[in-house]
Amino acid sequence: MRFLRHPGPPAALRQAVIACRAFPLVLDLKEGDSVNAAVTGALARAGFAAGFARLDGLAVAPMRYVIPAAAPDASHAAWYSATHAPDGVVAIEKAGAIAGIRDGAPFIHCHGVWRGEGGPRRAGHLLPHDSLVARDARVAAWGIAGAAFVARDDAETNFTLFAAEPADGGEGAGGLPALACTVRPNGDICAILEAACRAHGLEEADIHGIGSLAGVDFTDGRHVPSYATEVLIDSGLVGAAGSRIEVALADMDGAVHEGRLARGENPVCVTFEALAVARRG
After folding, report:
1. Residue 170 pLDDT > 70, yes or no?
2. Distance of alpha carbon 170 from alpha carbon 185, whole angstroms
3. What is the pTM of this model?
4. By residue range, what is the domain housing residue 239?
């Protein structure tokens, strides 16, 4: 399997998996708010500091985003492009946002697929403070209790990355059994998610999340050679037969790729953040 060397010493702990409870939500996002403020504010009003939101169908103007790029020096294994700023209202086709805390304030990490007015279909990493909600919208989400995503400086990658950590509130009733997961570089994302669910007794779980992969191999034989990608899990399932992880992603040229990940062939590039939620019944 591919291996991407990072500038710092590899961390001993290769993934954090925190048992928690997940609560289904519908969030009302307000026109004029930044995407960051809209999502984290709606989560807070529902009583949650952390979770995951799908931003499918959201209209954004202005929209600001980046795609993966080569690092300008040896301080990182990969970096970001210059900021893309499409004109007019951009329609998000599908996107996912992990919500947590960075520098003591609510923050989201968001990847998705979108299209500007009359423009091509694109994907990447949305800049949540610089992108504004263009019209009121309702989106599906999960709030989590008992775990949090907290941004920490990471010596291995030299990035500030979300880390799954225990949090108060997971002892109460309600919600569904879930796992908050963050994964470090070079492990196969499918195998890691399968092992996490198995270790915590989640026999069948839906997988939500975003991250980066060091090149991508799909089950139909297609290969994306970019050593850095920005990935959205479009739909994911872990069960007795293994995993079925469908993704959409941006490569280093800005092209959009979609398909099912081949197990054992897709190492994490910088980080992956996921929420596994036990299926009802």
Report:
1. no
2. 28
3. 0.96
4. 177-278
